[in-house]
């Protein structure tokens, strides 16, 4: 059993991704950065997941610049990021050279811990990213995505963890992205992993179904070493348990975190004010316990974004129908864990099935690619009927999906041309070419305007 429990703070990444659709701006993070740095967290999650895309797409900010600014403001705290294996921070597989370049630049710009996962728990899709991260000398968390299905068992999760340990990762993360991990299930899985693998275990969960606080206590008893929490104003709902809640619960025990509640309360006061800035992105499910997530299995980060997308299409009233359709689509696709990008694939196809009124009358390209095997090997079988309906006479691939991809970095450098002014820009372009081009053009216009103002000022 672990003694002192370490804490990772998620407010700068997953917490706002889950509760306000990933819209927190860097300007709202920096004023409180020094106080966060002074807490003594094991790590702070500051990057990765949907933040890279959303920062560019919606906030018109440079995610690399955010990382550098936070790093300068928080020199004492380990920075952690979520990396989607071969998907990097995108929604498809990228060539190995793009994955390697991204990891190298992320480490150089301030990331200390790489949490690497694959939506299918397909080890082949994590290999390149893990090897690249280990090469930087940083810490690597090999991640097991938790889900519930007829093909997922305690021994299944143990096997994934053992495969990751064999690859040389320094920590194992059990990632419960939808908040479905029940207390006794957590105890059984963690106990078994800890009995077989001599590595620290980091647990990530969400409060969507109301289980996470109880699950965390049982996880501690089973030997978990690090827990993910969010400062109270950005906790609960589809986010993580409150940092203050966990710190207070463990005070005076063998597992005391050592964190100061007074410092945390001052940080909370700041974020209570900040959250008001993002009221338009609040979801009606944020403050509800939704045990129906045990059926839909939709992760917290996607739920708020799905609501926002349906709202844009004036179809928010279809949310319950889409959530009800998701487990059927998931079963058709061989029970993938629902986390980016499989959550988007299943969610989008479920939405199409509901909106058209006829299942699979329209099949999304991502669904076709999934059945083709381009996202990895499904955990369970996909029926021959489903394959025929989606693929026709084509046969799914059996190789590692990225083996089919040509190197992409040099082509991105060529295509970006003069718009890319750094290696980070080249990597950004390789990941999101259209969004990057729009952002670089906007950025260059801003910079030119600044140069013009400075030149005019110097003449006077």
Overall helicity: 40-55%
Q: What structural class is derived from the secondary structure elements?
A: alpha/beta
Low-confidence runs (pLDDT<50, min 5 residues)? none
The description of the largest β-sheet is: 8 strands, parallel, barrel
Total count of helical runs of at least 4 residues: 20
Please provide the ordered H/E string of secondary-structure elements. EHHEHHEHEHEHEHEHEHHHHHHHHHHH
Between the first and last Cα atoms, what is the distance in angstroms?
Answer: 70 Å
| Beta-strand content | 5-15%
Radius of gyration: 22 Å
Order of strands, main sheet, comes to 1-2-3-4-5-6-7-8
Features:
single chain; 460 residues; alpha/beta; 8-stranded parallel β-barrel; 20 helices; 8 strands; 49% helix; globular
In short:
The protein is an alpha/beta fold and 460 residues long.
Task: Describe the secondary-structure layout.
Elements: E1 6-9, H1 14-19, H2 26-37, E2 43-48, H3 51-57, H4 63-73, E3 79-83, H5 96-109, E4 113-116, H6 127-135, E5 139-145, H7 154-166, E6 171-175, H8 183-196, E7 201-204, H9 212-222, E8 226-229, H10 243-250, H11 261-275, H12 293-296, H13 300-312, H14 319-332, H15 342-356, H16 365-372, H17 384-391, H18 409-416, H19 423-431, H20 433-459
Parallel strand pairs: 1-2, 1-8, 2-3, 3-4, 4-5, 5-6, 6-7, 7-8
